[in-house]
Amino acid sequence: MDRTCEHCEEPMPIMARSHARTCSPRCRKALSRAKARNPLPVELTTRDRWVRRSATKVPLTAAGMAASSTDPRTWSSYEDAAASTVGAGLGFVLSDGDDVVCVDLDHCLNPLTGRLAPWAAAIVRDAGTCYVEVSPSGDGLHIWGRANVRQGRRIRRPDGTAVEIYGTGRYIAMTGVRLHHSPRTLGDLTDVVGSLTT
Asked: Cβ distance 126 to 194 under 8 Å?
């Protein structure tokens, strides 16, 4: 499998060590600086699939016009979307151009204590090295990773809570508030998605 630099996304040099994540010292330093400034995974911030969002979660362009989760002409780079003051925050668009997915857990986090409901703690544990952030509501979670999800699903749990799984045609409101210092990487969610949908 061809590897690419995590910063510039150019092919890694042939002689690069197996654990190397960047193609050069310059990219290594730039990646380090970017991570220090931004809690979001580089796998997300390097994609031009960012929108702004209103307080009611309506997607907006960086200029304040209506945006669409299916029209790439209304999306921006992370830098442009983050620099905009339109709306209430940022959103990331899920596209069928890759395997980035989001598992959305509703009403599972106590915003006062930070404690997770046991069912949600089990899903977060099974997700392993995935970026997990607190949703805008303050009592839900977004687990970001990789899996083959082409059809969104909403799974109603017996206790009334819900789990949603999306991989394309949606945008997810972003907060940048990591759960318990979760890693800034997109791990493999294939097994988690499989266990939730069977």
From this structure: no
pLDDT tens digits for range 106-147: 999 998 888 999 999 999 999 999 999 999 999 999 999 999
C-alpha 17, offset from chain centre: 28
Burial grade of 36 (CB within 10 A; 0-12, 13-18, 19 or more): exposed
Alpha helix segments (H runs only) across 72-165:
78-83, 118-127
Query: Which residues are catalytically annotated?
Result: 104, 106, 142, 164
Three-state SS across 127-139?
HCCCEEEECCCCC
Quote the CA–CA distance of 34 and 37 in Å, as a whole number.
5
Q: What is the pTM of this model?
A: 0.79
AA identity, residue 16: A
